[in-house]
Structure formats: structure tokens, C-alpha cells
């Protein structure tokens, strides 16, 4: 069984329970919130009994849902199906993600998921929306498909009965809704506002301890080591990939994603694909066709999808999460928290940039490099053709932590040979000569624009070097510096289909800072609109014509 | 009355209705999705009847909630209270934000908000979770405090009756839940999968038009110009600000936020403050005390809070949205979409960086400069003392679009005189001499660290220049270039309490690119933990000791 504290601010209770159960010396509790202690202000994986970092509210039920789903899906040969218990605060039930998680749990009939809602009436700054009206929570959980049990959260017999009942429910998840009082048993604390997150002064503590009376020693217990289950081992895939395209074919990198992931999934049974009702656009549908039991349709609820993936990762599975890149911003906080949970999740965002065309600005991923690039130790990839997309997807699997691949909506020509090699942190020089004036570093859709620009410039007697920076983070610093050395002017023009700040150009700037090079960033500087791919690349001033103009200005 | 299409992909219907009502020539419909047309793939404010850009799903009910709240709060002297109608798709009801919005609407008894849920069974890639089980939606809306009306969405008489009934409901919002069929009336489209977002071929179109028969001319109507209501005019505040602190006092910039906003709110009746149950941490509680009727408690539901603010902005109010900076990432998609809606929202994120101390990594805002900085035409400010915080807050009000201020948890000394001037895009040189070796550009909490470092270095005979870059975007390019000119080495050390990528340092890099300067970025490069402010600044290597070391290495 697993226990998650979605209300991470109850960390002192979380630690104290484990200490009382003998998991660590009681004295270690004195290190709470101190630098270097594994008992942090909110639970993190530093403390080994923490299954997920919490502290940003409303995420625990999704993570627990991901774990409960995985446990059922693995069909473990244990006597009973392990259960996942999630302690939720009443304040956090206002987070929409909780209801995304509730839909997920009831849709997939996760009766091994038990939500315990601690209704203590008081949030941080005032009473919650519903105070002690427990029926408000009961109606909501019931409507979302949960079996509900309402109890007095201070009555041990009632708690025991509720847990016993919950364990017998079939076909649906369970919510135990408890009426509780903050500071129960201490006259000046009980049910009183203004104490959230405050430590007691010495005299207040003495009075509180006196009022609470002696510790009930019957509550001590010893943590029992459960039978150990070995899950599918994380295995590096050495698949020989089969391509159904050849050099010169027009293929969208998003199409490659589904096909290749399906192949990788043949060898590695721990790969899962999750999607938010756009599987026919991201092409994760090809994985669904090949491995229906390891495809999780998460419907249009991106926050829950990302936290479910964190739950999968915690149980040693390898989740690939796909949707439009723009809609991954919906789960920015969940991605941030997944990194804190030390989860390994592979994200694939399709429909990046203005190159998507007619659907308009709301569907364009133009902040995604910034979002994923900011996370420490993440990787960000953007292949520009089918071959590089396939090999980079395979390379992603080995990455521990957060990895991200941008895929393109439009088809691009297959440029590389089948035996070309690609590595995280690498780049490819596509055009070069002994007399190159400067370097154009492009990524994704702009690689083709850079190549067109190179051809035009070449006809006018201007030689430029073109690099395909398929690895955005880490960017190929050595490759960039080598290009700077090889060109007449120490200039790199970066071209990307992403907003100006936080994108590829900033990685290049940081990489060559100190070399004396000039980095001229070309990126999208205004909100785009509907139109054809070519009209919008031109409007954003990142098409071949704009590159030609920029190069001429720089060489003037 | 107002009408929002939360299901933005129904844009063709949205435009067609206005065309049929005579709001534009029918022929303009032929420009749909073409470059330059105001009829984009999803509605944007380019089309004047669009109240909010939609296309990222699940946001419309929140925006409508913000508008309905504003309308009720303004107590307009109209015969009837204007109503806000929001058309929702069934697929998007899986988004948690819809249920945040539902809680908001019922808590504030917004009976002038009418949700119309179009239950057509089919989402983009497959059937929705609940298909045509309308009772599933009815139970959910009822549980969340809505009056519900279930109808056949193809029966005009039923629709009319439902709208009439909805308009009479008191004390709670209303959801009209309609059973509909996609492609109704066309044999090969009706209720069929695989047609989402697909245009018909010529022969298919001909068949469809034939099956549908002649246009029912009785459905044409003329858009009636409603009586015009003039809302409170946006007025630039020229308040004389009253400070209850003086030079040398220790004051946290977050404390200044609430006090000064309350003062600004005295003169400008269009200022609202919104908070997500952390008003006693962000200090928006001071605005609540002064202007209770213009404070909106949004509880722990940040996505809804941001979209509610977009609704307020649409009705010419000036929303200030505050929570922990870390939790603004929860609403990254809503912030992105607010920019597309041309909304003006002022964000204030408290508890930035590792300097918050013991609460740990989950509560630290370390991605917020990246998040807000990426949005085109946004501004990002970070005052390091109380005086600059006050003046910059006042300066923010005039900004149209997305503006953001980072505020600090720890107290910092008041550095500036009361009559010092601060402008967006400016900076202050705090220490300088004729023989400065290089420049340290700091922002927020690191300003004090830079000053300490300057003192230590000075004692060792090394002169450095220190700048307070309180304006991060736009960064003071001229000021930075002037400092580069004035120092012996062309080096700027940037120090910030933010992750490495997408932060302040990248703005500086971009600003001085091409000048040949070296920019040495000091930023947080790993996930932090619990500890004291000073321990964590040292651990992140952005404290005075780290700065001293960095400067020495650079000068070596």
C-alpha cells in the first residue's frame, strides 16, 4: 500500500507518524525544516517514504490515481491488490485538478484508490468555501462517481470502520470525508483562525501539551515491511528501428512519434503513452493501436495527465505524455512539481510555433522551450526531420528527469541517412564551405528556411554555414564555438519558431557568452494569427526571406 | 448581455450567427481562417464581438464568471442586470478549471451567469467520458450549486423555454445541458466519429446542403444595439503615496504591495484585488480591509482566478492578481490566453526564490521571470526595497497587457529616498567609482548580497559597480551599456534568485549582445530545499560570498 499527503503542509504529521512507527529515531523530528534535514517544510523524495513531492495543492489525487492505475494494470501476483491512500485538505478541494483526478479515478474504476478528505473548515487565510458543510463535499464526490463515507475524523473507531468499508468497495474509488477540528484538544487552538503555519511559543506549547495530556502509548506501532514486489525493470532499448520513409519523403515529425514509440514499446514493456484527447493529432494513436493496455486516454485534463504520469514514474514505468505543446502550459505547475518529485517523464508537444497555420494563436506552442528549458537538468529536443526524430526519441528514454521533444505539424523532407547518428547535446552542420561569412543556427521548422536562405545567398555570392540544432538543451556548445572559429565573422544568427525570450536563442547566447561572438536572435516577437504556414513564417519574420535580409544587414 | 464561446473551435458558428444577424456581410464568412481576416480559426479580439480569445478549452466559464461578478458588483442602473451566456463543449467539461469556475459562480451567487453545455458525445479523437449520459453532467453541475435544465438542443421551443426559465432563477447560476448531435441532419456526418476539424469535400458539401434543405429564413434576425452603459473610466493614478516606513527600516516588498495598492484604490475605483487564499502572505489583505467590495477571494483555484481577472479587464476594471509566484505557474495557460485576449492584468507573485527559507522548494518561485518574460509585450519588475516597490506598483497600473511584479518574503532595508524616481525600463547605480573593474547587476534579494560583496571586495582593493535592475523586462539596456563603458573590463555579473534559463541574466545577455561584453550569469542551478534564507542563498551560490568568488575568478 502507498500513502500520499496531498496536503503537503501537514508534513510534521507525516514525519511524526513514521517516527512513531519506528521508521526513524524520534529525535530526528527535531531537525524539521533545518538545512540538510530530510524532513523538509513540505515532503520531498529526500525522505524515503515520500512517494511524491507535494506542497503545491491539489495534485496528490492525480499522482495516487496514476499509481493505482499502474498497480491494477500490472496485475501483480500478490494476495491482495495494493491500495493507494491520499490525504487531502479541504482547502485544496477548490483546485480543479482534484476533479480531473476524480473523473479519472471513477472512469477507470480505481477501487484501490482511497481519498481521505480532512474537512477542518479553516484554510490559510479564512474559512473555506464550505466550512463544515460536509454534505457539499459528499455531493461533489458522489457526482464524480465516488463511493463516499462521512465520519468524525477524531473518532478512531469510526476511522477504522470507514477504512474497513472502503477496502471492500468494488468498481469505483472511495472518498472518506472526515469532519475534523484544527488544533483539536487545545482550548486556544481548536477551530480558531490565525494559526495556519504558525509555531507555538514556549508557554503556549507548555499549555497545549498540558491540555492534551499524556501520549496514548497504545497508538505506537511498528512499520511492517510489506512483501516486496519487483516491477518491470527499466531497460534501455537497443531496438533496431524500422523506418517506413526514405530520404526525400515528406514526413511530419509528429507522425514519427507514434510509429517509433510503438516500436520502442515492443521491447520495453514499461513504456506507456498518455494523451489528452488529441491522439489523432499527436499520433500517439499509433502506440494505442500497438499496445492498447499501455495507452492511457486522459481526456481533456492536462494537469491530471501530467500528475498521473508522475505516479507511473514512481512505480518504475516510463510515461510518454503527448498533447499540443501549447496545452502543456496548462500543466506548468505539475511539470515543476514532477521535477521536485524526481519523476522521469518524457513529454512530446506537437503543433509548435506559428508553422501550424490556420488554427490560430491559441493552438501555437511558442512558450514551450522556455517552460521546459527553465527546469534544472531537463533536456529539450527539436528534430527537423523524420530520421532525427526517431533516433532522438529513442535517446530520450534513457534520460532520468524531465525530457521534452517538440514535434512539427507540417511535413518536412527527410534529410538524413538511416544510419546517421544523433545524440543529446549534439548538432549537425548541414552546409559549410571554406569561405563562410557567418553561421545560421536553426532548429525544427526553421532548418528548411535556413537552407533556402543559404541557397539564395549562395547565388548572390554569400557563403553561410547552416547548423541543425536538434538539441536545444543542452545546446551543442562545442559545435557552436567550432562554427564561430570556422567563419569569417564571429556571428551566429539563431532562428526559431518560438517567442523571443527563453527560447533556443537564449541557450546559444549563454553558450557562447564570453567568446566575443555576436548572436543575432530571430524569433517570434508578437502574437500570431490564422494563415498558411508560409504566410505566418513570413509574418513572424523567421522565413527564408527574413533570414536573407538579416544576414545581409549583419554583413553590411 | 454577453456571449462567450468557451468551445472556441465552434468559431464558424460564432461568426455565422453574427453574419446572419447583420453584424457583417455574409460574404466575409468566406475569409474564414485566411491570413489577414478577422475571422480566425478560434475567436480572438480581432473580431469585435469576441469578449475573450478561446481555443484553449475550459476557460470560458471563468471569464464569464469574472464578467458576471463585475456586472453585479457595479450595480448598474439598467432596467435589468445584464447576463453572461457561456457556450461550453462536453469535451472541455473534463478540464478542472470548469469546476473551479462552477464553485466560484455558485459561491458568489451569480444568477446572471448562464452556462450552456453542448453535449454532442464526440470529442476530437473519440467519445467523451460520458457520451450522451446527460445525467452525469447534470449531477456534477447540481453538486456544484447550479440550477440545471436538461433539454434537446435541436428543439427551438425547448431552447426558448430553457432560456426563459434560466433568466428567472435567483441566487444561483444556471446550466442548460443540451443533448445534441454533431452534424445533425446530414446522414454521413450525424453522430459519426472522424469528422472533428475536417472540412467537407465539394461533393460531400453538395450532398450535405441537399440533405439539409433550404435555409430557414425565419431564423434571420437583426442584431439590436443594446443600451450603452459607461463603465468607470480607466484613470491614471497620480496619488501622492504615503509611506509608513523610512530609509533604513526593514520592510518586505510583499508588505508594501497591500498597503500601497489600498492607497491607489482610494483614487481609482476600477482597481480590484484577487487572491487565492494567501492574502495574509501576499498582503493583499490590506486592500481587502480598505476596499472590501473590490476584493475577490478566489480560494485555492489559481486558474479560475486568472481567467476571472481577464473577465474583469474586459469590462474596463483593473485587476491585480496575487499569490505565491510559484502558484502562478498553475495558471500559465490562462496567462498565455489572457495575453491573446488583450486583457490587462497586473500580477504580483510573492515568495520568490530560495530566499523564502524553510518552506522548501515547492513554495519557491524560480520559474516566474521565464513564464512572464516570454509573453510578448509583457513587463517584469522586481523591486528590492519598499520605496521602489511602491513607485513601481503605481507605474504598473498604466501598463496595457500583462505586467508582473515579484515581491520578496524576507524584509530588506529601505534604501531609497522618498522622492527617488523609478520607471519601467530603468535601473539604479548603487555603487560606482572611477576605477570599477566590472559591474554586478542584481535584482531583488540579490541587491543586498551584491552590496555586501562590493564592501568585501572594496576592502581588498577591488572596486566594482553595483546596479539595482528593478526592471527586468524591459531591462535597462542603455544603463547596462553605460556601465560597460565605465568599467575597466567589459564584464557584467548578473545575480538572481531564479533558475538559470529564462531569467534576468538572459535579458541582460540579449541586451548587450553584440557589444563584445562578457555576461557571467549567477543563478539557481539546482532544486533547493528547506533551510534559512542565508543557508539557501549560499547553497544556491548567489550570496555575497559566491559573488566575491566569482568576481575574483573573472578578474584573475
Q: Would you mind describing this structure in some detail?
A:
- The structure is a homodimer of 556-residue chains.
- The first copy, chain A, has 556 residues and is α/β, with parallel strands linked by helices.
- Chain A contains 19 helices and 19 strands.
- Chain A has helices at residues 11-20, 60-74, 96-107, 134-143, 156-166, 202-212, 253-267, 279-282, 285-290, 302-314, 325-328, 332-340, 368-374, 386-397, 446-459, 477-486, 504-512, 533-539, 544-555; strands at residues 2-5, 84-89, 113-119, 147-152, 174-179, 250-251, 271-275, 295-297, 318-324, 345-350, 379-381, 402-406, 412-413, 428-431, 438-442, 464-468, 471-473, 491-499, 518-524.
- In chain A, the strands form 4 sheets. Chain A has a 7-stranded mixed β-sheet, with helices on both faces. A 5-stranded parallel β-sheet of chain A has the order 1-2-3-5-4, sandwiched between helices. A 5-stranded mixed β-sheet of chain A has the order 14-16-15-18-19, sandwiched between helices.
- In chain A, helix 2 crosses helix 10 and helix 15 crosses helix 19.
- The longest helix of chain A is centred in the first third of the chain and has 15 residues, at 60-74.
- Chain A is elongated.
- Chain A starts with a strand and ends with a helix.
- The model of chain A has no long low-confidence stretch (mean pLDDT 95).
- At the A-B interface, helix 3, helix 4, helix 8, helix 12 and helix 13 of A face helix 3, helix 4, helix 8, helix 12 and helix 13 of B.
Amino acid at each position: 500500500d502507498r500513502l500520499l499527503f496531498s496536503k503537503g503542509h501537514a508534513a510534521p504529521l507525516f514525519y511524526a507518524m513514521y517516527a512513531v512507527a519506528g521508521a526513524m529515531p524520534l529525535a530526528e523530528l527535531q531537525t524539521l525544516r533545518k538545512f540538510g534535514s530530510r524532513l523538509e517544510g513540505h515532503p520531498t523524495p529526500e525522505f524515503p517514504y515520500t512517494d511524491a513531492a507535494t506542497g503545491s495543492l491539489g495534485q496528490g489525487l492525480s499522482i495516487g490515481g496514476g499509481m493505482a492505475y499502474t498497480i491494477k494494470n500490472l496485475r501483480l501476483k500478490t494476495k491482495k491488490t495494493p491500495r493507494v491512500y491520499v490525504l487531502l485538505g479541504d482547502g485544496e478541494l477548490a483546485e480543479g485538478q482534484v476533479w480531473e483526478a476524480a473523473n479519472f479515478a471513477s472512469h477507470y474504476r480505481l477501487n484501490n484508490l482511497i481519498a481521505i478528505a480532512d474537512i477542518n473548515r479553516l484554510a490559510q487565510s479564512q474559512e473555506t468555501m464550505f466550512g463544515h458543510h460536509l454534505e457539499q463535499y459528499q455531493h461533489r464526490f458522489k457526482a464524480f462517481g465516488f463511493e463516499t463515507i462521512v465520519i468524525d475524523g477524531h473518532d478512531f473507531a469510526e476511522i477504522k470502520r470507514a477504512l474497513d468499508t472502503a477496502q471492500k468497495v468494488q468498481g469505483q474509488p472511495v472518498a472518506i470525508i472526515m469532519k475534523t477540528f484544527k488544533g483539536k484538544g487545545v482550548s486556544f487552538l481548536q477551530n480558531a483562525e490565525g494559526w495556519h503555519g504558525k509555531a507555538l511559543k514556549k508557554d503556549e506549547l507548555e499549555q497545549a501539551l498540558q491540555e492534551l495530556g499524556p501520549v496514548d502509548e497504545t497508538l505506537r506501532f511498528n512499520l511492517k515491511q510489506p512483501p516486496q514486489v519487483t516491477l518491470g525493470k527499466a531497460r534501455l532499448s537497443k531496438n533496431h528501428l524500422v523506418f517506413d520513409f526514405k530520404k526525400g519523403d515528406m514526413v511530419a515529425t509528429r507522425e514519427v512519434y507514434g510509429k517509433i514509440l510503438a516500436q520502442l514499446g515492443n521491447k520495453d514493456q514499461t513504456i506507456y503513452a498518455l494523451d489528452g484527447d488529441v491522439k489523432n493529432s499527436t499520433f500517439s494513436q499509433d502506440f494505442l493501436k500497438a499496445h492498447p493496455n499501455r495507452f492511457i486516454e486522459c481526456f481533456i485534463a492536462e494537469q491530471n495527465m501530467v500528475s498521473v504520469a508522475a505516479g507511473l514514474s514512481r512505480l518504475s514505468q516510463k510515461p510518454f505524455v503527448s498533447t499540443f505543446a501549447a496545452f502543456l502550459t496548462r500543466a506548468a505547475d505539475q511539470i515543476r512539481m514532477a521535477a521536485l518529485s524526481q519523476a522521469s517523464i518524457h513529454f512530446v508537444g506537437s503543433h509548435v510555433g506559428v508553422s501550424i497555420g490556420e488554427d490560430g494563436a491559441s493552438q501555437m506552442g511558442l512558450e514551450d522551450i522556455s517552460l521546459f528549458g527553465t527546469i534544472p537538468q531537463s533536456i529539450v529536443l527539436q528534430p527537423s526531420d523524420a530520421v532525427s526524430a526517431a533516433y532522438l526519441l529513442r535517446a530520450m528514454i534513457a534520460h532520468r528527469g524531465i525530457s521534452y521533444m517538440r514535434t512539427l505539424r507540417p511535413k518536412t523532407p527527410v534529410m538524413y541517412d538511416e544510419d546517421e547518428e544523433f545524440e543529446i547535446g549534439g548538432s549537425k552542420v548541414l552546409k559549410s564551405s571554406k569561405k563562410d561569412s557567418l553561421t545560421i543556427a536553426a532548429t525544427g521548422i526553421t532548418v528548411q528556411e535556413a537552407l533556402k536562405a543559404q541557397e539564395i545567398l549562395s547565388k548572390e555570392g554569400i557563403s553561410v554555414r547552416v547548423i541543425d540544432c536538434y538539441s536545444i538543451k543542452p545546446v551543442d556548445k562545442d559545435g557552436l564555438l567550432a562554427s564561430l572559429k570556422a567563419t569569417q565573422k564571429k556571428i551566429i544568427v539563431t532562428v526559431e519558431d518560438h517567442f523571443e525570450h527563453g527560447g533556443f536563442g537564449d541557450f546559444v547566447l549563454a553558450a557562447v557568452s564570453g567568446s566575443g561572438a555576436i548572436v543575432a536572435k530571430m524569433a517570434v516577437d508578437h502574437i500570431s494569427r490564422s494563415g498558411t504556414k508560409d504566410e505566418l513564417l513570413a509574418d513572424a519574420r523567421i522565413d527564408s526571406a527574413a533570414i536573407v535580409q538579416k544576414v545581409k544587414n549583419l554583413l553590411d
